[in-house]
Structure formats: C-alpha cells, structure tokens
Write a structure and sequence with these properties.
This protein is an alpha+beta fold. It contains five helices and seven strands, in the order αβαββααββαββ. It is 32% helix and 23% strand. The structure holds adenosine-5'-triphosphate and magnesium ion. The site of magnesium ion (MG) has 5 residues, from helix 3.
Length: 183
Amino acid sequence: MLSLRNFSRLDESEYKAVDIHEGIDNSLMILQDRLKATDKSPEIQIIKDYNNLCNVECYAGQINQVFMNILVNALDALEELNAKRTYQEIWDNPSSITIRTSAIDSQWVKISITDNGSGIPKSIQKQIFNPFFTTKPVGKGTGMGMAISYQIITEKHGSKLEFASTPGKGTEFVIQIPIQQQV
Ligand SMILES: Nc1ncnc2c1ncn2[C@@H]1O[C@H](COP(=O)(O)OP(=O)(O)OP(=O)(O)O)[C@@H](O)[C@H]1O
Ligand SMILES: [Mg+2]
C-alpha cells in the first residue's frame, strides 16, 4: 500500500522534483507478479542501466502512469510472443525489458524502455497514440494507455515520446524530458 501511495501521488497537484529511478522501480514492484516464472515460461529479465540523473520536475503521479503504461505494454508484447514459443525457445532467447536512463545535456534526461517482444507491425505504427486504438482482445485493452501517455508527456511536460519497433524483434520507447519545467 505504501508503494501504491508513493506511486500514484494523488495528493500532489504541483510540479515537484523527483527521482525518476524511484518511479520506475515503483512501477516494476507493482508489476513483479507478471515477471515471475510460470510452468510455460521462465522469468522475464529486467535489465537496468541507470545512470546518474538530477531529480526531474514533473507531475510525479502522471509520469509514473506513463512508465506503467509502457511497461504493461512491453509485458503484453512479451506474452504475445511467448504464446507462440516453447519453454525451451524462451529459455534460449529470454524475454527481457531493458531500462536505460541518461542525461542528454545539463537540461534534458532520456529514459528508454526496450522489450524483445512481438514488435509493432509497420502498418499500425502510425496509430498507436490514437485514443481507443488497440490490437488486444476485447476486454483486455481499452486502447487509451498510449494516448494518455502521449498527452502527459507532450502537453503536460513539454517533453517527447517516441518509439521504434521491428516486428518479431521488439520495441523501444524513448522519453525525453527537461529537468526543469518552463512556467
Ligand atoms: N511494446 C509494445 N509492443 C508491441 N505492441 C505495442 C507495444 N506498445 C504498444 N503496442 C501497440 O499499441 C497499441 C496501443 O497501446 P495502448 O497502450 O494505447 O492500448 P492497449 O495496451 O491496447 O490498451 P490499454 O488502454 O489497456 O493500455 C496496443 O494495442 C499494441 O498493439
Ligand atoms: Mg497499454
């Protein structure tokens, strides 16, 4: 509960300088059950390449929501791919999510989240930020995760959200965010 409270930061309605790594780790903690090994697939590997970052001024609850949306999509994509692979195939080429953070310069930081899941077909890449666009089964996705994330990153934080994906290989989402918000 403490983690959920830290995570959502519902009581905070102002920009505040926060530790980005803490927000990502909180999201991973909430998702830890989905990383565990099952009888069908080995554990999903989380590879962290965290570098020294200044605290970032943001609406922490909203930024955490973006991390969560991207990570859940990565897990869905890994599961989609693994549904077509045997235990041995997954063992030989393990599912992973790689999280890299770095300072771009004295004002901007970069957060990259890469999965080696199903990837996004070229034909739908233009649509993934559209509200209600989903490829998931009825009842699973609402298609709002990326639309909301895009709005949070671009409009609320004057930041950038981009992705690159190769079907069959995986997807990388990149967030670029300024350390200080322009008021
Ligand atoms: N990492 C990823 N790998 C593969 N496809 C992805 C990935 N991230 C997003 N997508 C594609 O983009 C679509 C839109 O994502 P979005 O998060 O907006 O909706 P959703 O996950 O379908 O539903 P929800 O609103 O519950 O998040 C997904 O349905 C999926 O097709
Ligand atoms: Mg989603």
